[in-house]
Design goal:
CATH superfamily of the largest domain in chain A: P-loop containing nucleotide triphosphate hydrolases
CATH superfamily of the largest domain in chain B: FAD/NAD(P)-binding domain
Helix content of chain A: 40-55%
Number of helices of chain A: 16
Oligomer: heterodimer
Largest interface: A-B, 45 and 53 residues
Number of domains of chain B: 4
Largest sheet of chain A: 7 strands, mixed
Strand content of chain B: 15-25%
Largest sheet of chain B: 8 strands, mixed
Structural class of chain B: alpha+beta
Number of helices of chain B: 20
Shape of chain A: globular
Distance between the termini of chain A: 46 Å
Chain lengths: 482, 629
């Protein structure tokens, strides 16, 4: 039977309230031992200044003799903190269930934390860091079934869950990646497989292909790949890897100030801003952090009746992204009268979660806030994108809506993001091992294993399997044979 | 007229490298075995390169030997040069290769076959496999003689509907002008077996007296040789070695090829069979790698009693007149006399996905096959499969457990798993890069990995088995001793370390720690290791490798543990995949076609996704429960 330890967020990631992270498997208890501290332990460690960055072993040493949480009785709940070395992540309740008296019949630990995506995600990441792997879709149920916990008649239901979720993950994990990230990962993989194929062709045909001095070149290649991966990992920390967050669409007639608003939110000149109506012809996307909430913002071409072919496509796209958005921000130009374009938008947002931003409030107002509120039935905030006025109110509004559970989004994206981050970390680890082996003067056949591993894990990010890549590259790139 | 001739337990069709191993295994396991060959003069023939072993192929030969096969012993008797390749790389890719005296090799193997009990040799062409209810009952020869039998092992090599081609000349013969087998393919097709058509090729042979060796680099054998067989020591087989020679093609050679490329049957479309990518013809190399202005050419003797020299690196199917110019453009071959022309050969073989990992056909019980017939290439790949087919046919008839080596146990396991699981659309050659667990699949430890299995089967005798057990104990004890022997930082130790350019000690350490240093070895530390007892060379080698690369080996072992879990989940042979809910259609089709033995094998089938495997696991558990209830 499977003995590795899996973890996942068991509740929907979106709402406020309580989130539960569940761990199941042989190491569930030893993992929680490493990351759970009660208040007195924290104070104890703090007094002795053992909360420094790499005081892992010392912490353990210092805490010997104290009762570990894993030594507590099964089916008890404990109050304390989740920590990652010196960093306190959150105040939590931890529920222990020793196998076989648990859902999966394995050792199970549940961490109940204060909801909120960032904290929940962070706790999951810490758990993964200390040895669990992220659960496949439906895997807890699968284990419950395989361990004889649930009824046979449920088998088919389990299969359906696995299938539906996997299909979703497969379809979306690549789609959710931003284009340039995809390119970068692919490029690194291409570099790795080329070097690997060169090594392998030389190992298989030493009389034709020589590896003399190659390790120096390889060292530089690995170094370069590592630098790029490190950057990717940093963007992953900032949530920049995936189009994650609340899918937000900015609508408004041409030149209402949508792009200026986006630029303020993003903090850079992202969209092209001009005074000519119809400049944003494409749909731009950006993930931004508004307070504690991630918004995946889609800036759209202004909606207006148009004959310009290119612009028409942009307008159609704007309408269709509005249809599957979690939140619509409707930007109204306060300095001009509403027209037929506005009417179309007001229709479009009727039954959707949306907010109206009355822009250009710094100029002479033709439209006032009450009028538009009555017309749309939505909350209205007066802003000036140009002068950066009112953005803080928008931030508060989004945050309130979210924590009241009135705004939510598809949490699969978060799972994907954690998976992909883990994959990048694994890739980095493997390449570091390659570097280490080169430094130690190991022969090439030793580090090729780690190169292959890096190639594999990075493949999982871009949705590519390994299959015959290596052998094919060898034959394509290098002249072998008798 | 058809008539019954004689009955046997097993009939082996063909006496090449696969057929010889298959027949010897069966006969040695006390089965009454008949070997039918088209020509008694072509037993264990080497129609192409005059060597055995090489990268990854050398591993196969060591494994064959560890399981009780013959190839390693035969090349040890008949080699004329021996070399360990990749010696500057890690121990996992050290590969043994020996030049063979081809005629001696063939003659010596024939002698072994002729003197093995229970083994009958006969010259005849098999034209039909007789089967009833998808079960083998015998074979029929061209003369109409029927040999009833319980199992058949097909090792027909490149002989089925063989055609040899160069330029516009083509002959319907097997290699070296030997008679082709033109009828068996149709019989196999009527049994529902899917056939492929593959091609391969060989270079010209040149008269030694016409070669100017002064323009070439001499390639010597190793001074310290390693035998292929674990039963031999270096002293047992030491002999005077002959040299090979290295020269190069040049721009003139490439010009001749490019100007005549339209006359190559490969390029004008006359050859339809699929050729191997790893040993391309010289015209392929020149066309595909146009940026290279020279290619290596190895001139290798075909034996001690012939002047024929093999021109390694220049296989071709260009017309005779072009070959003449082409070979003569190479440095040292200006006056070359060509004894045999280069040619390409096309032949029928099977889609090996029709086989179980035991090498028995899924749809014809008792029918086994091995070698080039299974879509592989190379003498060593053939011999390995022949041995496994022989072992498994015997186990089946004896009612004992069959042997399926997995990818973590042997290169043989990788070879057969690839053949029966992955779609091979070209002749399959073993490569070290195909073995994902190669750090533990070394040529030096093949005996430790496999001889226990050989003993269980009955091909390794008790004496050899006991020696192996002793070796294991010695290794274990020595490793333990080295891990526990403390070395102080005294003057003698420091002096020795300095002598080898190794950092001096700051505090005490163990012998094992010192061996882990890249610049030190077990042997070097002898002066500071006062309690050392003398151990056999093979034990020292293992101890050294184990201690030096322990971290890597341990990591690989953990990967193997993961792999074994899925490999151990066997799938019932009668599982109907169309009844498994939620499997994707492509997966259903592939799984129904290949009928994998284990979930591990299923996961390696292209077109079967990880989600399909999850579904399959759940279903299998369901299946198991409902059977129990």
């Amino acid at each position: 039977m499977n003995t590795d330890t899996i973890a996942a967020i068991a509740t929907a990631v979106s709402n406020a309230g309580i989130s539960i992270i569940r761990i199941s498997g042989n190491d569930a208890f030893s993992i929680i031992d490493k990351i759970y501290r009660v208040k007195s332990e924290l104070e104890f460690l703090k007094q002795r200044q053992f909360l420094s960055n790499d005081a892992d072993d010392q912490q353990d040493q210092y805490l010997t003799g104290r009762k570990k949480i894993s030594e507590c009785e099964s089916h008890t709940i404990h109050y304390g903190y989740i920590v990652d070395k010196d960093a306190i992540i959150d105040e939590v309740m931890v529920l222990l269930m020793r196998g076989p008296r648990s859902y999966t019949k394995e050792d199970v630990v549940e961490v109940h934390c204060h909801g909120g995506i960032i904290v929940t995600k962070k706790i999951l990441e810490v758990i993964l860091k200390y040895g669990a792997r992220i659960a496949e879709p439906g895997e807890f149920t699968k284990r419950a079934f395989l361990n004889g916990r649930i009824d046979l008649s449920q088998a088919e239901a389990v299969i359906d869950i696995i299938n539906a979720k996997n299909e979703y993950a497969l379809k979306n994990s690549v789609n959710q990646l931003k284009g340039n990230i995809l390119e970068k990962v692919k490029e690194i993989r291409d570099n790795i497989i080329y070097d690997l194929a060169f090594i392998e062709s030389a190992l298989d045909d030493p009389e034709h292909i020589s590896l003399d001095n190659f390790s120096e070149d390889l060292y530089l290649h690995v170094q370069n790949n590592l630098e790029v991966l490190d950057k990717l990992l940093k963007s992953a920390h900032n949530g920049r890897l995936l189009k994650e967050g609340i899918k937000t669409v900015i609508l408004g007639k041409p030149n209402a100030g949508k792009s200026s608003l986006l630029n303020i939110l993003v903090g850079s000149e992202r969209a092209i801003v001009t005074d000519i109506a119809g400049t944003t012809r494409d749909t731009l996307e950006e993930t931004i952090q508004l307070g504690n909430i991630s918004l995946n913002i889609i800036d759209t071409a202004g909606i207006r009746k148009t004959d310009d072919y290119v612009e028409k496509i942009g307008v159609e796209r704007a309408k269709s992204s509005a249809l599957d958005a979690d939140l619509i921000i409707y930007v109204v130009d306060a300095s001009t009268e509403l027209d037929e374009n506005d009417n179309e938008i007001i229709n479009l947002i009727q039954d959707r979660k949306s907010i109206v931003l009355l822009n250009k409030s710094d100029l002479t107002n033709v439209i006032n806030s009450d009028y538009i509120k009555e017309l749309t039935g939505k909350d209205v905030i007066s802003v000036s994108a140009k002068e950066n006025i009112g953005i803080d109110i928008l931030e508060q509004w989004v945050s309130d809506m979210f924590f009241q559970g009135k705004l939510s989004f598809n949490d699969e994206v978060y799972i994907t993001s954690i998976r992909q981050k883990k994959a990048i970390e694994d890739g980095i680890q493997s390449l570091i091992m390659v570097k280490q082996s080169i430094e130690d003067g190991m022969p090439e056949d030793f580090y090729s294993i780690d190169m292959m591993h890096a190639y594999e894990v990075l493949g999982s990010i871009v949705g590519e399997a390994v299959d015959e890549d290596l052998v094919n590259t060898i034959f394509r790139e290098f002249c072998m044979g008798k | 007229m058809a008539y019954i001739y004689e009955s046997y337990d097993v009939v082996v069709v063909g006496a090449g490298h696969a057929g010889c191993e298959a027949a010897l295994a069966c006969a040695r396991l006390s089965l009454n075995t008949l070997v039918l060959t088209i020509s008694m003069d072509s037993i264990a023939l080497m129609p192409c390169n005059p060597n055995i072993g090489g990268t990854s192929k050398g591993h196969l030969v060591r494994e064959i030997d560890a399981l009780g096969g013959e190839m390693g012993k035969n090349i040890d008797k008949t080699y004329i040069q021996s070399k360990m390749l990749n010696i500057s790389k890690g121990p996992a890719v050290h590969s043994l290769r020996a030049q063979a005296d081809k005629q001696e090799y063939s003659r010596t193997m024939r002698k072994v076959l002729e003197n093995t009990n229970n083994l009958t040799l006969k010259q005849a062409e098999v034209v039909e496999i007789l089967a009833e209810d998808h079960k083998v009952v015998g074979i029929k020869t061209y003369s109409g003689a029927i040999y009833p039998c319980k199992a058949v092992i097909l090792c027909t090599g490149t002989y089925l509907k063989a055609r040899c081609v160069y330029g516009d000349v083509s002959n319907y013969t097997g290699p070296n002008g030997l008679q082709a087998a033109n009828y068996l393919t149709d019989s196999l097709k009527s049994l529902g077996i899917e056939m492929y058509r593959f091609k391969t090729g060989t270079p010209a042979r040149i008269d030694k007296r016409s070669i100017d060796f002064s323009k070439m680099e001499e390639q010597f054998g190793d001074e310290d040789i390693v035998p292929f067989s674990f039963t031999n020591t270096a002293e047992d087989i030491k002999k005077e070695q002959v040299s090979c020679w290295l020269t190069y093609t040049n721009e003139e050679t490439h010009r001749i090829i490019n100007e005549n490329i339209d006359r190559s049957p490969l390029y004008c479309g006359d050859i339809k069979g699929t050729g191997p990518r790893y040993c391309p013809s010289i015209e392929d190399k020149v066309v595909k790698f146009a940026d290279k202005n020279r290619h290596q050419v190895f001139i290798e003797p075909e034996g001690n009693y012939t002047n024929e020299m093999y021109v390694g690196g220049m296989s071709s199917s260009l017309p005779e007149d072009v070959q003449y110019q082409m070979y003569r453009s190479v440095a040292g071959l200006e006056n070359a006399k060509i004894i045999r022309n280069a040619y390409a050969i096309e032949y029928d073989c099977i889609n090996p996905m029709q086989l179980k990992p035991t090498l028995e056909f899924k749809n014809v019980e008792g029918l086994f096959s091995g070698g080039q017939f299974n879509g592989s290439s190379g003498y060593e790949e053939a011999a390995a499969q022949g041995l496994m087919a022989g072992i498994n046919a015997s186990m089946k008839l004896l009612g004992k457990e069959q042997v399926v080596l997995d990818r973590s146990e042997a290169y043989i396991g990788v070879l057969i798993d690839d053949l029966v699981t992955k779609e091979t659309r070209e002749p399959y050659r073993m490569m070290t890069s195909r073995a994902e667990y190669r750090l533990i699949l070394r040529q030096d430890n093949a005996d430790l990995r496999l001889s226990k299995i050989g003993h269980r089967v009955g091909l390794i005798d008790n004496e050899r088995y006991e020696k192996l057990m002793e070796k294991e104990v010695q290794m274990e004890e020595e490793i333990k001793r080295l891990e526990n022997t403390l070395i102080g930082a005294n003057a003698e130790v420091q002096a020795l370390l300095e002598q080898y350019g190794s950092n001096i000690l700051k505090t005490g350490t163990t012998l094992a720690e010192l061996i882990r240093r890249p610049e030190l070895t077990y042997e070097m530390l002898a002066p500071m290791d006062k309690d050392r007892v003398e151990l056999p060379k093979s034990v020292i080698e293992q101890v050294n490798i184990y201690i030096k690369y322990e971290g890597y080996i341990q990591r690989q072992m953990r990967q193997v543990d993961q792999f074994k879990k899925m490999e151990g989940k066997l799938i019932p042979e009668d599982l109907d995949y169309t009844q498994v809910p939620s499997l994707r259609i492509e997966a259903k089709q592939k799984l129904n076609q290949i009928r994998p033995r284990s979930v591990g094998q299923a996961s390696r089938i292209s077109g079967v996704s990880p989600a399909d495997i999850s579904v399959l696991l759940v279903y299998l558990e369901h299946f198991k429960h409902s059977k129990n209830n």
